[in-house]
Amino acid sequence: MPHHPIEQPQESEQLLSPEQQDALTHCLARFGQEPGGLLPLLHSLQDSLGFIPRAAVPAIAEALNLSRAEVHGVVSYYPHLREQPHGRTLIQICRAEACKSRGGDALFAHAQETLGCQAHGTSADGSVTLEPVYCLGLCAQSPAVMVDESEVHARMTADRLDALLEEIQQKRLEAKADEAQAAIENEAFAAARIYVPRDAAALAVGADAVAQALQRECEARGLAVELVRNGSRGLLWLETLVEVETAQGRVAYGPVQVADVPGLLDAGMLQGRSHALCHGLTEQMPYLARQERLTFARVGIVDPLSLRDYEAHGGWQGLRAAAAMAPEAIVQQVLDSGLRGRGGAAFPAGIKWKTVAAAPGPQKYIACNADEGDSGTFADRLLMEGDPFCLIEGMAIAGLAVGATQGYIYVRSEYPHSIVMLNEAIARASAAGWLGANVAGSGKAFYLQVRKGAGSYVCGEETAMLESIEGKRGIVRAKPPLPAIEGLFGKPTVINNVITLATVPIILARGAAFYQGYGMGRSRGTLPFQLAGNIAHGGLVEKAFGLTLRELVQDFGGGTASGRPVKAIQVGGPLGSYVAPENWDDPLDYEAYAAKGNVVGHGGLVVHDDSADMAQLARYAMEFCAIESCGKCTPCRIGSTRGVEVIDRITRQGGAEHAANVALLESLCDTMQHGSLCAMGGMTPYPVRSALQHYPQDFGIEPVQTVNPA
Asked: What's the whole-model pTM score?
């Protein structure tokens, strides 16, 4: 269903103020002639004014040759577009599964009580507007909060939220400029080199303050240091993870807070000496040493915006190879590698590419789906913020392979740091000739743009994403025609997600056989598994297919953060199943999981301990579907709403009515699974049915007792 009620624009519009008119004129000049320019135009106008005035709709419609209803329909559809100003500060608290597993619901209730307002409301003094948000990509550091759609906070507690709100009320929040990190492109430094991550996972726990403290303290002591802002290594429970370069290799310290800095320097951190926070050589830490990092080989190692760093660590080798190959040879390499889409559906990437390459037409597109909205998933964000050139290189290779000259990266609005990083990386890659009119000296053109989403989960579905890039409401398209034949703006389009495209460079650089050497069965290569929820060592683990959930959760993850037994593990995001405990030792493999009604998906895991109420988590799955449905098909739109009601009756009633409602829930799930237009409604039954099947007691159902014959 639509996210906001749709109202018809009134003919008697209120006039724009001079400031609003100036902002609108600027936005129209910048985006008015751009294909699909409505959504970026609306974002730009909202960034300037804080909201989108209703009075701007007629002028936008006229300039873009759209009806007022079309413009207003887009504004009203996306949760992150606003027709009214919010309070002086906007607080968004994550309500997704990973944050729920660590007290996110209680935190939101505490915020409502403290501010004296409900969700989407504003405190009486107008200072703070409170909104729920469905995943900030900080799932291994939950609960997570975002301030003013830019400043992130993780591991949030009620006390920490109170302190944050107190700062807001007293107007003592310091404006944090998003400092552009200059690439280190010149001479070597004699100074000690210190690495402090600058991606959202690190920023959310104070990495900027740690970097400033290190710089300040070293200057006061007369110590020469070179501070490099890298990406996160993915050991998120240790953020802020500071590394120091020594003759033996990098030495890791973490989690470092500002108060730790003087003691670390006293102990000889710049020389890699021992300290309570020291973990030894980073590469020898068991969590990293046991991984097979192919796609994430550079993440956490390089300065993400340094072209020199990227090339020194193997960057552009795949694009150089592709530039010297025939397009069909590039496609064949991807086919032979066995690479399958890492966005969830696991469709062979090479087949998509081959179809688009063979499609007639002078204009083709590459569309990267970076709308990583599933709770428990953050691999795309880590890569975009830690190694953006890798994604750019993969998209350029795809363009050469299929004859596409334009690419778009569709990034969710909840990832402001990713958007900033990608835009800067695209500018630098273009200036260096890796993008533009003559890609890597190939004589072929490929241009790249970032398109920002606006809070719609269903835009992670590929056709809804295309609609959004075109500047429309993110409504799912019926298929056929397939996007490979008739996709973006009606042209043949390759659609892959971030990890799929970022994996292509190593395949072209090292060869298809190299990548085929990892994995099992038809699941070749590696997958970045993401450990989130109630887990001690949350983070990213890139491993070849074939390891088990138990290895991931116990050996890498260290069990639950609460110390209580693991009760449930959801794999594949909010539409994924709760895998039965007896299957936790099964090898992770696309076909093996599908055979048991499970999905590997994007590789995200959300862990719950034995205090979790599985009936309430099943209810949340239905509620989430009702909130996020695009509304196009009845089974999803109506079925999810009825699902919430039926689960409520199951948890309240007993006797014959209880059994009848359980049967009704099963029937409803069957209708949604087989009747919905896309995976939003079609897969919502997965978590509901698996919770009902594996944890019947939580629904008031006594498990069937097996009687052994005498």
From this structure: 0.91
